[in-house]
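#struct-help
A.M.: can someone run this one for me? Single chain, 355 residues.
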Amino acid sequence: MTPRISTFDEFRDAISAYRLPRVLLAALELDLFTVIGDRSWPLTTLAKKLKVSERGLSILCRNLAAAGVLHKKGSLYRNSRLGATALNGNHRTYRGGYLNLIRSHWTDWIRLEESIRSGLPLDHDVPDGPDYRRQFTWAMHHRTLEIAPAIAAQLHLGRAQTLLDLGGGPGTYAMAFLARNPRLRATVCDRAAALEVAKEIASTHKARGRLSYAPLDFCKDPIPGTYDVIWYSNVLHIYSPEENQAIFRRVRAALKPGGRFIIQDAFLHDQQGLYPTEASLFAISMLLFTEQGNTYTVQETAKWLRQAGFVRIKPIPIRKGTGDWEDGIWEGSAPGLRPRMIANQKGSGRNRKGR
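D.P.: on it. Structure tokens below:
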């Protein structure tokens, strides 16, 4: 949690926190981690390779080593494990999509005043083309590579046979649920450009035969089919309260009796709608990049669920540090018994008759 600011020194320190992030971004912009690769470099040779000043590179690398993303031994620098893998463009685990998104956000956040004055996202008059959607979808895949399997391991789906990943982008969560649930079939619903990325990602996955795709504008159109579980991860914050309420009604219509609607998002948990701080800060991103998005309290989201006809609204606890957000998963159920409960009841009836 971000410390509360009550003195000038604390205010100064909060503003000055931009320094290390800017050092890290400069290293990405120079492709430093990719150039270093798996070698150790003297500064003079590395500066010539990067075509930068030795003085500037010396100061940059010293700070990167102090932060732990580089290692320094005498006059030589080499990558840390992180630098050599996720930050290295030549490594198979490179997170380039998400790193590029982070880099672009630096200049976007500098323009925050524009969006505060207008109430509109940056470049709101520029169409969101397929190329951008592909890049953004890859970024979301790189962001959730470890998170999705960790959540799927803790979120038990019981005897569910069908799952819809609504607004699922790259399908990273859908694939994680399929990996944990051998009888499950999943559908990813999103824009066509996002689904093309999902198909590329799924092409190497063992469970790809149990995954299907549904290009759909779910803000306007009914959701085709019915499902045991609908997963709505990091989508709630994109839309206005009215849009989310309309989506909730469509979800309710697409769930089987007793079906589960599971929402993961940056929920605010206190009465005043201020905390966690990360959820409040994330609303700034929604101001910069969406027409009407925001972050919402658990209380108002639960109200929308009840109004849409959901019951048994409750949080799903997961281990601290393994989810996207702090206490960030909630669910509501469609009225009726889940298939497993019906099966259990039938079984109990047969047992009674057998006695």
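A.M.: thanks! The CA atoms of residues 23 and 63 lie 8 Å apart.
D.P.: also worth noting: The mean pLDDT is 92.
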